């Protein structure tokens, strides 16, 4: 998946799941006292990210940053 396509899905708040090397990951959205967030991580074990930049700089898939494996999805 291209970064631009992924950014479009995030901007539209499209929830989705994907499989990477036999492990399911999900992306959902929500809001709390800090503001709107993107929940990303293993299915039912997401971590909250409060911006696109934070998601791309900190999100991990297996032992790699998500941004490095995004093209393989």
Portion in beta strands: 35-45%
Structural class: alpha+beta
> Assembly state here?
single chain
Shape call: globular
What are the low-pLDDT stretches, counting only 5+ consecutive residues below 50? none
Tally of separate helices? 3
Summarize the structure.
This protein has 73 residues and is an alpha+beta fold. It is built from three helices and six strands; from the N terminus they run H-E-E-E-E-H-E-E-H.
Polypeptide structure, described:
With 73 residues, this protein is α+β, with helices and mostly antiparallel strands. It is built from three helices and six strands. A four-stranded antiparallel sheet has the order 1-2-3-4, covered by helices on one side. The protein has a two-stranded antiparallel sheet with strand order 5-6. Strand 5 (60-61) and strand 6 form a beta hairpin. It starts with a helix and ends with a helix. The mean pLDDT is 95.
